[in-house]
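Usage example:
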Amino acid sequence: MRLLNHIGRLYTGTRLGVVENAVLAIEGDRIAWAGPAEPGPPQEVRTRIEEEDSCGGALVTPGFIDAHTHPVYAGDRMAEIAQRSAGESYENIAGAGGGIGATVAATRQEPARELRELVAGRLSAWLRDGTTTIEAKTGYHLEREGELDAVGILTELGLDPSLPRVESTFLGAHAVPPGGVADTFIDEVVEWCGPAAAAGARFCDVFCDEGYFSVPQSRKVLAAGKRAGLIPRIHADELAHSGGSLLAAELGAQSADHLLYADEDDARALAEAGVVATLAPGTALAMGRMPPVHTFLDAGVTLALGTDHNPGTCGATSMSLVVALAVAAFGLSVDEALAAVTVGGARSLGLKDRGTVEAGKLADLVVWDAEHEGAFAWSYGLAPLEVMLGGRVTAR
Amino acid sequence: MRLLNHIGRLYTGTRLGVVENAVLAIEGDRIAWAGPAEPGPPQEVRTRIEEEDSCGGALVTPGFIDAHTHPVYAGDRMAEIAQRSAGESYENIAGAGGGIGATVAATRQEPARELRELVAGRLSAWLRDGTTTIEAKTGYHLEREGELDAVGILTELGLDPSLPRVESTFLGAHAVPPGGVADTFIDEVVEWCGPAAAAGARFCDVFCDEGYFSVPQSRKVLAAGKRAGLIPRIHADELAHSGGSLLAAELGAQSADHLLYADEDDARALAEAGVVATLAPGTALAMGRMPPVHTFLDAGVTLALGTDHNPGTCGATSMSLVVALAVAAFGLSVDEALAAVTVGGARSLGLKDRGTVEAGKLADLVVWDAEHEGAFAWSYGLAPLEVMLGGRVTAR
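Running the assembly step on the lines above writes:
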């Protein structure tokens, strides 16, 4: 058993809140004990300590959880991003061969092995930035074999001990593929749910919004996913108030994401159904519209946060930057934002073994280059000193 | 003479715009030639090339210019930042010994040698992040000797070849010191302008706003600064529409900063007087209010950008992050934001020898980990591969 001592502040995410001058015992891949250095762990824990490491007074938190990402893609849309920033419409860019169509073309052409390496490189960046669990979606193939390969890549990389833990989401219904027809495509996606579950996907997601898939189409896919054992999550009310939140509540989805146009009724429905609201401040800033964060909190909705890393708008892999943006742009307190990237993230992914620092949980931990959690709001991308995955130091 | 070749895209900031497949010749600390690889430099330049280095197809820009920073401080206000994010008022925090008063107390207590080391450490971070020139203000001593020492530290560090170039600003009138009276303190600050100029300050700044200094008080300090040879710049219209922009125009200030409450009349006045609008997106986000960026652009005001690095709200040192925030939060195009951190920054600091890539300018250059400038908006903190200061590689 190993003891981490001289933890200046330990953000537990439990009823203990933040413990000053804390210690933490790790056995195998789990936390054996966490609490104040005085009086410290009970005798039966203390006698089993074989090794002690000092955190030098630094802040320790659970490993961060990024609850919304799209990392399985090839190609680069930087020129398009510059054009869009200069006022060119997404429609014109897509019409000229850009937009998601460009990523789909590049991703389909990428050999599986090279695609796997691209994704692995991205996942490493998340871990270096302090994220130990990441939700990752498919959705840039939009054809059967490619979508299933993408699930396979995520499943395989999720087992690599040098990368963060991955929860994979089958997002076959990300967009209508080039030349496709929405209703016909939805019928195909419905058929892919079973194989996607067999390939290791845990969630099924759909882009339910204006210009993408309607509520009935989304319901069809998510219901098929459920029958195949995939837990529903949903891109909801991002581009318009299009009904995705209510569908999430109806289906008992694990998470409804983005929610820029959600209202009080939506918030109440999400709260009653226990659906987590997974929000992406980077995307909200890019869209110039903020989700009704305080309406969610007042209604009792659990919040999670995500980078929404994707090739078209956001390349961020730092959840500590996302915490800063959530404080600055959403008006969350540092504590609310930290809860959203730890406990809230675990709820968004339906995981009971992580997201807090307490006995029995996975020893996924980050020692930060700071003495107080206020530094997340100040630093705009606070860096880890050390990242632990199941008690092993993976990045430093 | 050294040739940088295989520059995928060269952002020049001149009428050449972005040159694809470019080369750049450096002689001593200056750019000797820059332009397309074909046909390349003229014969008389070509014959003097002794060394060639490949940029591997990467994007090259002028070194970034951070036109608004407060790096001369000691102490840490992270706990207060967390409290403020949870809704505690600045007044209550200041009343309990926090706020700027806490920084003033910590900074006054810090021995000059240690303070110098703190500032040097911060300046290194800017250079690593791709900033080669930084405007840096005093203003956390608020007493004669300390303020002059702070100018001295900035002047000395600005000569250190391992740090970015520093343009130092005397901001004695940053706030009324604890126990002080505004009018009396202003009379003192007026007396310090001459010695501040002698110690190496180039600019004089004042916090002209509600709860800080009035327009008449600000005019008094900036006029005294001018008589002492200090160029005026001003914190203006940040907390209220309090008249700072018009004062900047009246005095022919080099820059008016923040400007969250400025209006169309202010924009017109700034444009006519040639005052640069120096904006800080991190601060604007934290204040929950955006400056009228497009009103400035429509009026023909030159924009610059700054981190506004300071101990109370923002610890960012990355101007590439500031570019991303300016695109996301201000709605600037990538080109407009890049102009603001290069040419615009040079104008904000009244410097004619940098900010563009062309013959005769300082060879302050950054090779970025990207092939297209759209990556600044995508990456939220794009990293340099190499930072050059007067042609020397200083950070990699």
